Amino acid sequence: MPADKPTLNGAKGLAIPTLTPEEEDQIVHARITNEERPLKRVLKRFHQYTNAAHPTALSLPSPNGPTGLNGSVEDAREAFLVELASFQLLLKKSAMICEAEARQVEEYQREKQRIDLEHNTLRGQIEQLKTALDEAQVTRKRKIEYDLIAEKVNTLPSREELERSIEDLENDLVTIHDEHESQTRAIQSQKVALDSIITDLGSLRFISGDPTTSLAPSQRGTPALDGEGAEDLETSQPSADTPVPSKGDEKEEGEEGEENPPEAETNGDIEMGEVEEDTRSSRTRKAREELEEGEATDASSELSEPPDDT
């Protein structure tokens, strides 16, 4: 146990504990915020009243006697009561101020809670408005795109018009196909007719027996045919490689087959010479005319022109 510290009178007493820094700060703060002068005045009046009511032996007697002493006690008492009443008023005022401050603190807390609640509400509303704004922007963008597409669609013809145009095109295609088939059949028939004409001309040339003319193929080629017409032409047209017998060859064959006596030949040369020359000239002229007609027909006839496939 620590030893007791001596007091001012030299007597031993209890040791006063030292204050902590926090307690010292509280005392300093209380002295700053609470004014001690009213309390000191009350204490001063109280000491004056006690000294007047209970004079000590050391106090000097009053010059006025007991009457002056009683008057001073009453005055000290009245002054003490007045000072005590003013101090009570001051305490009541301080209490009222404390209550007002407490109410203000409560009001501040309620206002703070209300502001916090309103802040949270406004924050939620802001989030909702942001979401609504985003949705409105997306809706506006889609509406603009829809308007553009609708404008493009409105520029296009209707479904009925498109169906009618498709039907018209299909009908045109059918008509064109029929016309193409008819033209193809007509061209085939014309080719067959041209082949028959060429065959007839060749046979006429062969029948005419003109030595100057032969059944050599024409320099102008016949257009190739497709299908049955080409087969008919190949079968009916004589081959160019086949030799055409001339009149001299026939005579040689006749001489080989039957030898006439030289006397008959010499006798008939003069008589038949003029007739043979006349017949030969007439045949040659006729063959030339037919040849010219055939060449003119090959050059100018529409049947001889190659078909326009386009």
TrEMBL record:
One of its GO terms (biological process) is mRNA processing. Residues 209-310 are annotated as: Disordered. Residues 98-186 form a coiled coil. Pfam families: THOC7. The keyword Coiled coil applies. Residues 251-277 have a biased composition (Acidic residues). Residues 210-221 have a biased composition (Polar residues). InterPro entries: THOC7/Mft1. Keywords: Coiled coil, Nucleus. This is Tho complex 7.
